């Protein structure tokens, strides 16, 4: 499985961005795709995840502001980020969990929110 993340950038606080994660390869084996982020000096944290059945889960810090969705026809997962805050600044990574269990990571995309 290969993952290609895109959509990061610089935005003012209160603004919005949409990240995309395009999967290729053995996409039939993907059980879930998630978005994680890592800010400088902090541990990587899971932000949102969507399963192959469509169920979603979010970190408390982004509930009500971020929405994860997917386009099955394009094997792409999106992360719509609204009401962005400076503390959302981080490198965002998409990752896939497959069955049999393996983890794959895409390259990161930088999100910077200015105050």
Could you walk me through the main structural features you see in this protein, from its secondary elements to its overall organization?
With 115 residues, this protein is mainly beta. It has strands spanning 2-6, 9-12, 17-24, 30-38, 45-51, 56-58, 66-71, 76-81, 90-98, 102-105, 109-114. Strands 2, 4, 5, 6, 9, 10 and 11 form a seven-stranded mixed beta sheet that branches. A four-stranded antiparallel beta sheet has the order 1-3-8-7, with no helix packed on it. Strand 7 (66-71) and strand 8 (76-81) form a beta hairpin. The radius of gyration is 13 Å and the shape is globular. The model has no long low-confidence stretch (mean pLDDT 96).
List keywords for this structure.
115 residues, mainly beta, 7-stranded mixed sheet, 4-stranded antiparallel sheet, 11 strands
What's the layout of helices and strands?
Blueprint lengths: L1 E5 L2 E4 L4 E8 L5 E9 L6 E7 L4 E3 L7 E6 L4 E6 L8 E9 L3 E4 L3 E6 L1
């Amino acid at each position: 499985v290969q993952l290609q993340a895109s959509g990061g950038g610089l935005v003012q606080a209160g603004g919005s961005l949409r990240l995309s994660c395009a999967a290729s390869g053995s996409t039939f084996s993907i059980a879930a795709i998630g978005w994680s982020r890592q800010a400088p000096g902090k541990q990587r944290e899971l932000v949102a995840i969507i399963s192959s059945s469509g169920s979603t889960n979010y970190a408390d810090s982004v509930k009500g502001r971020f929405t994860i969705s997917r386009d099955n026809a394009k094997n792409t997962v999106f992360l719509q980020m609204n009401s962005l805050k400076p503390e959302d600044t981080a490198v965002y990574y998409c990752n896939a969990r497959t069955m049999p269990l393996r983890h794959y990571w895409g390259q990161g995309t930088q999100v910077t929110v200015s105050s």
